[in-house]
């Protein structure tokens, strides 16, 4: 326990990240101060929001600086502690980032229970991604029994959870994903309609699949998927905007006419609600209910989840780049240590 391997931001990516944007580093394992604990990372979560933090464009959170350890949710074991809330041997969830060891406090980390679910699940279905789906759908989408709920990136950790919660709430569900393997998985999850956005004429196929329109659309992607969905939105439809992964690597405005006028016309004439959100804004009011309900749904088998696990911290950059290109299948996780 003398060397702390980490991955830092070497330079800001221009468009799609490449290997040279990441810097591998070795330093001393930090020593916990008063009120701090040292955590050895077991699992690291990779998520699309990290691409935004690598940019210095104005956003909802401060950007990473060059040389910073890349941010990320982690699950790890407390190996030293000067915080009475955290005991050596505890498994905790925190934001340790892309490194083997990190410092935390009892205010920033909370203990997890492997008797409820495996440790890695607290980075997915029982962690930030699960709560993102839960809070965005229920607080903004407000699905009602009998309504149609559509979701993009529907085999991802957020999208797949959105669809399954919508089914629990009595809705008809439409999942949109990329590739035949993912479409088959949507059927396994119980989606009523499963569409491959890589096949031709998504707009026409979606129109046929939802003759009565869409009441809730959970947006994870943007791009041509959004272009197909917009005409199908019903009056008073709700659109929780969670992510726009199709745009994250853009370096310039998309080609073609400005569609903002058409968008605003739809918002006005259909009384649409488009609401961007960050899951943290709902933690105070909804997180306790989320842990109780989601834990119950998972234990009862009403919600299932899939993880895409890669071993080795050194493989985080390549895996992250692949995730942004849709190469992951399920929640993207790096196994850092046993």
Overall mean confidence score, pLDDT: 93
Largest sheet: 7 strands, mixed
Number of DSSP helices?
Answer: 9
Looking at the structure, the CATH topology of the largest domain is: Quinone Oxidoreductase, Chain A, domain 1
Number of strands: 15
Structural class designation: alpha/beta
Tell me the count of domains: 2
**CATH superfamily annotation of the largest domain:** Medium-chain alcohol dehydrogenases, catalytic domain
Radius of gyration: 20 Å
Name the CATH architecture of the largest domain. Answer: Alpha-Beta Complex
The N- and C-terminal alpha carbons lie at a distance of 14 Å
The sequence of SSEs as H and E is EEEHEEEEHEHEHEHEHEHEHEHE
**Contiguous runs where pLDDT drops below 50 for at least 5 residues:** none
The helix content is 25-40%
Assign an overall shape.
globular
Features:
338 residues; alpha/beta; Quinone Oxidoreductase, Chain A, domain 1; Rossmann fold; 2 domains; seven-stranded mixed β-sheet; six-stranded parallel β-sheet; 9 helices; 15 strands; 25% strand
């Amino acid at each position: 326990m003398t060397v702390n391997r980490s991955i830092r931001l070497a330079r800001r990516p221009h468009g799609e990240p490449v290997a040279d944007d990441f810097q591998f580093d070795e330093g001393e394992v930090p020593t916990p101060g008063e009120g701090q604990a040292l955590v050895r990372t077991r699992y690291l979560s990779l998520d699309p929001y990290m691409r935004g933090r690598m940019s210095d464009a104005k956003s909802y959170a401060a950007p990473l600086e060059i040389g910073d350890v890349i941010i990320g949710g982690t699950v790890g074991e407390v190996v030293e502690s000067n915080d009475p809330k955290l005991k050596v041997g505890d498994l905790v969830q925190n934001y340790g980032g892309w490194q083997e060891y990190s410092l935390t406090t009892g205010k920033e980390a909370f203990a997890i229970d492997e008797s409820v679910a495996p440790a890695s699940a607290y980075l997915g279905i029982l962690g930030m991604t699960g709560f993102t789906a839960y809070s965005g759908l229920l607080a903004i989408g407000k699905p009602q029994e009998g309504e149609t709920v559509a979701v993009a990136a529907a085999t991802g950790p957020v999208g797949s959870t959105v669809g399954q919660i919508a089914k629990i709430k009595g809705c008809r569900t439409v999942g949109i994903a990329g590739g035949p393997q993912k479409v088959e998985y949507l059927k396994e999850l119980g989606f009523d309609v499963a569409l491959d956005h890589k096949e031709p004429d998504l707009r026409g196929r979606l129109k046929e699949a939802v003759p009565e329109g869409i009441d809730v659309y959970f947006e994870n992607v943007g791009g041509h998927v959004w272009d197909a969905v917009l005409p199908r939105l019903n009056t008073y439809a709700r659109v929780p905007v969670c992510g726009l992964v199709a745009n994250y690597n853009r370096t310039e405005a998309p080609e073609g006419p400005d569609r903002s006028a058409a968008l605003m016309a739809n918002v006005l004439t259909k009384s649409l609600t488009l609401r961007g959100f960050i899951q943290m804004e709902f933690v105070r009011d909804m997180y306790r209910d989320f842990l109780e309900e989601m834990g119950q749904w998972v234990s009862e088998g009403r919600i299932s989840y899939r993880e895409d696990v890669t071993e080795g911290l050194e493989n985080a950059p390549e895996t992250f780049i692949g995730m942004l290109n849709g190469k992951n299948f399920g929640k993207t996780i790096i196994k850092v240590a046993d």
